[in-house]
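User: Need the bound-state model for zinc ion:
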Amino acid sequence: MGRLVCPKCGFIIARCLCDSIAKISNQIPIIVLQHPSEKKHALNTVVLMKKCYENISVFEGENFNEHKELQNIIINHSPALLFPSQENKTLSRSQKISHLILIDGTWNKAKKIYFTSTILHLIPTFTLEAVDKSKYKIRSSQFENSLSTLEASTEALTILEPELNTNALLKSFEKMIEFQIEKMGPDTYLENYAKKKGSH
Ligand SMILES: [Zn+2]
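Assistant: Bound-state model below.
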């Protein structure tokens, strides 16, 4: 009883996202540091990002101090890390940024990556201006004051490469959420959502 998978987008046929997937030719490479536990989530937005961005790398791990590729980027280029810090600099187009680095994981896991991987402390950190509340309804508690990795990437690119059109990616993202709500059923969805909402 294997579920049929669409050979193009890799999602199951009933939830094929091919219609809404469009390539985005970003000039500034996106680097996603993904916590291993994030990979298993049904709503892993990085899967979608990989299908749309032409210039994206995903590094998996928790401690990136010995990661050669990342070391090279940090030593030889001028990357920016999207992560809330005390400096709290706001991302703007005037900054010369070679790579955009994002951390993918729950808030606790993201913090773990940041504080374990001291190599990341060499990179200037940036935050985004307040934007619409995340559409990531199902796992909203994890993104209480932040965006999903996918939304953060489109927001950042809108600032750094305003000529890029990321609407299709956001559409696919919304579709992915709708499919998930359908799959869970509205009751389960409400239960999960209400519970999470109540805990804050
Ligand atoms: Zn497909």
